[in-house]
Amino acid sequence: MSSFNIKRWIIKPFVFFTILFILKAFLAWGVIFDDVLPWKSLLTEIPFAWALFCIIERFASKRKLGYYMTVNLLVTAIFFAAIMYFKYYGVIVTYHAAEQVNQVTAVSNSVFSLMDPYYLLIFTDIIVLGGYFFFNKKGRVYKKENINHRNEKIKYSVLFAVSLGLCLFNILPNKASMNEIKKAQEMGILNYEAYTIFAKEEPELVQSSDITQDAINNVKGINTAVSSPLHGTAKGKNLIIIQLESFQNFLMGLELDGQEITPNLNKVMKDSLYFPNFYQMVGQGNTSDAEFVVNTSAYIPPRGAATMSYVNKVLPSLPRLLKENGYQTATFHTNVVEFWNRGELYDSLGFDHYYDRKFFGEDDVFFFGASDDTLYSKTADKLKDMSNEAQPFYAQIISMSAHHPFTIPEDKYRMKLPERYEGTFVGDYIRSQNYADDAFGHFVEELKANGVWDNSVIMIYGDHMGLPIYSLDHDDKQLMTEIYGHEYTYADMLNIPLVIHAGDSTAPQTLEQVGGEVDIMPTAAGLLGISLENNLVFGQDLLSQTYNLLPERYYLPSGSFISSSGLLIPGNSFEDNTQYPIYNGKVPAATEDEYNRALRLLQLSHSYITQLPDKPIKP
Fold first, then answer.
1. Which helix (H) or strand (E) holds 23?
2. Cβ proximity of 277 and 432 under 8 Å
3. Cα–Cα distance measured from residue 258 to residue 417, given in angstroms and rounded to the nearest whole number
4. Sequence-separated (6 or more) residues with CB below 8 Å from residue 139
5. CA gap 116, 84 in Å, rounded
6. SS3 content of the chain, % helix, strand, coil (to 5)
7. Does residue 2 surpass a pLDDT of 70?
8. How far apart are CA 90 and CA 358, in angstroms?
């Protein structure tokens, strides 16, 4: 074939855009699936593109190039969104993310901070072709060739049928896969996106009459006859729950070249109960999901954020439980209450008051609201006022300054990073957490000075991870290996601390049992001596149990769980799972029985929340 004929063949829109499509698929697969030579993408992605191209060739007689450019732009946008969403969340983006578009837009700086410049190569052809067609009038006209249109239509109709068949061949055998990332890899990214649109599979609901505390405890595999030796030892005290932004457990006690990263939290930890094997249980709602899980002792929804899916319900909650026992309740957050629909969340949870940006003001703002210094200073004054009331209080405090991408203002630097950490994502994270700890330390001093500290149970935990594995480059991963002494794993990534300070009510102790955010409500109720008899909880009092089973969603594939046996991530099913240890040196041994029970717990939780009474419609 002559070079002229090759050129003439390549510039045909069908062939030309197929080549572009292959290059874009290679880029997306290389980032998301860490596949340097993703030849499998040819079998999974090309049939989808050809099906679209065949429709253009079959039905478009005019402006054919325009249709090709439109499809090209759409596919490029999907691939780019998939790349960036994976780098931030570690999951494959679906159309469900459009439901949280305002929230995702709000963290766009965080998302794009993870972008490598070469990702933008995916838009190169659009810019070049767009400029060519804009400045070249002749280029806008597609030159028709002398062809037999009837034969061409038959050819493209047959190719469309074959392409559609291949798409279905890639989709149908992989529908049952539990692991969404593997599912997308087996189906192809575009096939997976189409599948999620048309396969609107709703979880089967369990009848509410079958969802009892005994049934939940039986599935969890815990012995409820055992009571905590500390039950009721903090009866009548205030409850202060402090949620630390992006705070992971490895920071506790960490020193870099002799510098303590969190000296103030370390000091509190040494005088408290400390749970090093504690784990996040959030989803797409991140911080707001942590607020939901902690205050309801239920799991996040199958899709989306709890603040979008569950806030039309009257939620049995920690604020409601404590109000029934004579407490006043309030929650503190420096962002606007509309962010992640928190206003509706707080109403559904039954908080008496919330304090947001209107209360904390616009001074010393970075990221989404006033600094942690302002948060803690103004909150300490309000807690002092609340403590002067006749009734005890429950206050939840949401810190925010150590937020992704962790580039805090220089006037907030409280430490000098070792040279090898400067300019790295891990270094920025550590420096921001050092500032957050400094602000926390001032808060502790204020609470001690105004008398609130000694009369309160203080529970401190991280809301979610700050350093996702899939967001780290080579240098960052090396730094994490230096910190941990081993390769950074998913078990490390999800590990957050829990510290409980209750003054003379508890002796300082490190407790090794596994726990998660779902356990905070029952543990708090136990210390305060408040009965959960009229509440359903999916967590457990960590001071009365040694075994735990924690289903995970969103940041790990469906079917993943953490238990005293380890962390398990399924493949297409349980049989091809991957396991990670959660105790140093202990070989993980999670079982299929635990896997099935974890899935059952998620089904029970969703069924329970979904069938709760709706909130009254406000006039």
1. helix 13-32
2. no
3. 11
4. 132, 133
5. 10
6. 50, 10, 40
7. no
8. 34
pLDDT > 80? residue 233: yes
| Rounded-to-integer distance, Cα 128 and Cα 1, Å | 28
User: Cβ of 253: how many Cβ atoms within 10 Å?
Assistant: 17
For residue 558, give the 3-state DSSP assignment. coil
Please give the C-alpha separations between residue 396 and each of 294, 329, 354, in angstroms, as whole numbers.
Answer: 10, 8, 9
Cα 515 to Cα 278: distance, rounded to the nearest angstrom: 5
Rounded alpha-carbon distances, angstroms, from residue 127 to 119, 122, 264, 360, 405: 14, 10, 52, 45, 29
CA dihedral of 514, 520, 523, 524, whole degrees rounded to 10: 150
Q: CA-CA distances (angstroms) from residue 166 to 39, 44, 170, 173?
A: 16, 8, 6, 12
* pLDDT for residue 117 is more than 80: no
Indicate the range of 6-10, 29-33, 373-377, 452-456 predicted with least confidence: 6-10
> Shortest CA distance to 399 belongs to which of 358, 353, 367?
367
What span, in angstroms and rounded, lies between the C-alpha atoms of 303 and 121?
Answer: 32
State pLDDT tens for residues 125-171.
888 877 666 666 555 544 555 455 677 778 889 999 999 999 999 99
Distance CA 533, CA 531 (A): 5
Distance of CA 231 to the CA centre of its chain: 33
- Residues 6 or more apart from 506 whose CB is under 8 A from it? 230, 233, 234, 272, 273, 500, 527
Compute the distance between CA of residue 190 and CA of residue 192 in angstroms, rounded to an integer.
Answer: 5
- The domain ranges of the chain are 3-198, 208-532+541-610
What the block records as the tokens of 35 is 């596949």
- Residue 119 identity (one-letter amino acid): Y
The model's pTM: 0.90
Q: What is the mean pLDDT of residues 540-563?
A: 93
CB within 8 Å of 241: residues ≥ 6 apart = 294, 394, 395, 396, 397, 458, 459, 460, 461, 520, 524
Buried b (16+ CB within 10 A) or exposed e, 155-190: ebeebbeebeebbeebbeebeebbbbbbbbbbbbbb
CA angle 573, 578, 584 (to 5 degrees): 150
CA 333/CA 336 separation, integer angstroms: 8
Query: What is the sign of the dihedral through the CA atoms of 338, 341, 347 and 351?
Result: negative
Bridge pairing between strands 328-333 and 353-355: parallel
- Residue linked to tokens 């697969």: 29
- Residue 617 CA, distance from chain mean position: 30
Residues in Cβ contact with 313 at an 8 Å cutoff, skipping those fewer than 6 apart: 348, 609, 612, 613, 614, 615
Q: Which helix (H) or strand (E) holds 260?
A: strand 259-260
Q: What is the bridge-based pairing of β-strands 495-501 and 456-462?
A: antiparallel
Topology given in CATH for the domain delimited by 208-532+541-610: Alkaline Phosphatase, subunit A (3.40.720)
pLDDT of 454 higher than 70: yes
HSE-up (13 A, CA, CB side) for residue 83: 26
> What is residue 80's three-state secondary structure?
helix
Closest Cα to residue 340, out of 99, 111, 516?
99
